[in-house]
Amino acid sequence: MGDYNGIGPEVAIKTFSKIDLDQSIPVWIGSAAIFDYYLASVGLDLPYQIIDDETEFKPGIVHLLDPFPNEKIEAAPGKLTAEAGRASMLCIETGAKLCSAGYSHALVTSPISKEAIHKAGFGFPGHTEYLAHLTNSDQVMMMLVNGTLRVALSTIHIPVKDVAKRITFDTLTVQIQTLQSSLIRDFGIPNPKIAVLGLNPHAGDGGVIGSEESEIIAPAIETARKNGITADGPFAADGFFGSRLYQNYDAVLAMYHDQGLIPFKTLSFGKGVNFTANLSIIRTSPDHGTAYAIAGKNMADESSFLEAYNLAVSLAKNRSEEEE
Hints:
alpha/beta; Isopropylmalate Dehydrogenase; eight-stranded mixed beta sheet; three-stranded parallel beta sheet; 11 helices; 40% helix; globular
């Protein structure tokens, strides 16, 4: 469901109207009242049923699992509230449990508000960190995906002033290995090529602007190569994207949030997907936020959520085939 005062329910419902309900079975986790509210607001007529422990899943309809059957939940589009933050996190928890137990093959999360979840008492900066906690997964990695463009992040939701101290040789070595494993397991790429960006402008300019490239990043890349991983860099980020070198690689490892996400979102045209690599379950999400300003107005574009849903289905099939 995500934050029910944002556009999450709307883009999910619009997505359900576009997917083939005979090819995959969506289970929407959230308040039935919220689902009905946004279903009416977008003017769609979707076949759905509220499910319980005895329900048999069947193709052709949307299944609705309500974790709050005895609570009165009312939508207030555009309003930031602790109640919506709490509900969004409890829905994520329910979805993670379903996937961990094998009842569902993948989890697609709608946008949440970091401020709202903090108001509700959750001390996690976002989905990625909370899901890692729920599933006891180590070394998870945030990756943005749009077709063959895949951008992973070394650091995620931390202040820029803390980025450099978080980038270490050991961390990068593990992250490059994690990225390679995900490309093989989840995306079905047998011999992936990975590009690693530098931290500083001009990738340090030979040490003139910074030494992290020569002392940390380059040695980590060299170690990856010795371990059989095809990895290149460190590349200066601006030139790398400006010259479209990303087209030569299966994934890019950026050093911090905006370094990777600004070019990604510019290139993905609103169809990017957030994927959490090395999580014990499959989880995808649209690459946008709650968009409170247009919530409840039937103005939200579901393209990114639709891509997130389709990618989740594809990843689930790839993992199943890889495990077999």
